[in-house]
Amino acid sequence: MRNIYKKFNKKGALVTICFALALAGFFVVALGTLGSPERESKEENRMLAAFPKWGAHAYLTGEVYRGIDDFLADHVPARAFLISQADRVKSFMELQRDKKVVKVRADIGASLGADTTDASFETQEVVILPDRMLEVYKKNQRGCDDYVATMNRIASKVPEDMKVYSMLVPMRIEFEEPAYRSAADPQKDVIEGIYAAYDDKIVTVDAYSQMAEHWGEYEYFRTDHHWTALGAYYGMRAFSEVAGFTPLEITRYSETVLEGFLGYLYGMAPTPSVKAHPDALCYYMRNRRNNPATLYTYDENGNLYGRPGTVFEKYYDGTGMEPPSYAIFLGGDCAMIDIRGDGPRDRVLAVLKDSYGNAFIPWLTPYYSRIIGIDPRQFKEDLYETLEEKGVTDLLVLDYAKVTMLPSYIECLQGLAQ
What we know:
Layout: H1 2-35, E1 40-41, E2 46-47, H2 56-61, H3 63-74, H4 79-98, E3 100-107, E4 121-128, E5 133-135, H5 141-157, E6 163-169, H6 178-181, H7 188-197, E7 202-205, H8 207-213, H9 229-243, E8 254-261, H10 264-268, H11 272-275, E9 279-285, E10 292-298, E11 304-310, E12 336-340, E13 348-353, H12 356-360, E14 370-374, H13 383-389, E15 394-400, H14 407-417
Parallel strand pairs: 6-7, 6-15, 13-14, 13-15
Antiparallel strand pairs: 1-2, 3-4, 4-5, 8-9, 10-11, 10-12, 12-14
Helix pairs in contact: 5-7, 5-14, 8-9
């Protein structure tokens, strides 16, 4: 019994000492506050209450007590920090209030000549904000694994001396504020995980760092799921770091701006507040050069045929397009496009792409003599025979991150890889 009592006394003494130290700390902080109080709150843009002056009148009327109360309220230790945290919580709640997530039936087939059967559609989530719309990314591990396996198969079947590159472009929601970004899964780790699983032959392109570095510029549309031509320019700069060419500065190009663009996401879920904030569709030309191309698609009998075109197909001067359309780049999605470039004659690039490649490819014309764009959603020919026939030296597979969660797109890619 005595031992228990001694243990109890020791425990009680320890609690008493801790309480005394905490109380002493409180008085030290309080005295510090009284000794050198802040006079102004920059966070609230106002003067803080001063300690009241003592006097008979103030004492009798109670003003001194109200003054002490105001003073203590304005000079709580760590008050500025607490206010900043409260503002962050308030902002987060306001952002959550503005956010609306909807599910839409989205066409992942090509916009021109695609067979839009039920198999061409996926259900996707879209975050709708007052002035913009965001596609939501949800990690699909099987999709990621299938994408890696398909890329490795392609790399193993092309000639040994052909360079193979992979570029996965992050979606806009990855760089949004946390309250909006929380609706999606992180993309950075997914992209890095896919890159790490590739065979050694595949050279990876770090588009993510370029997009993150220039976030705040007009890299992505607000009403569409694509990157803008400016975003694609930064993607080209990322590609140049591993492809061995020096990119031209964007100041070497003339910019044309077409106002009033309402994109694909707006079309899936029309929203009045978003309609009031349309995008500007910009494109860039070097010395007004609109490189010639042949655009290939399939006729009603399934035969591939080509027609003459340009990289800014039909709409390069802004005429004949009402309203503006992302189809300004390469004329939209077609099975294949064969572009005459201005680069060295010994360099021919094939780009196996989704529609993100449409705004990207025009930036490459100064560096390659020929560029072949292939859309796996439509192209039905033998990929490897086509690469050999066109004299391809370099192959880039460019997709935005969302394709890793779309089984129907990956099936198209797998079909070409066989």
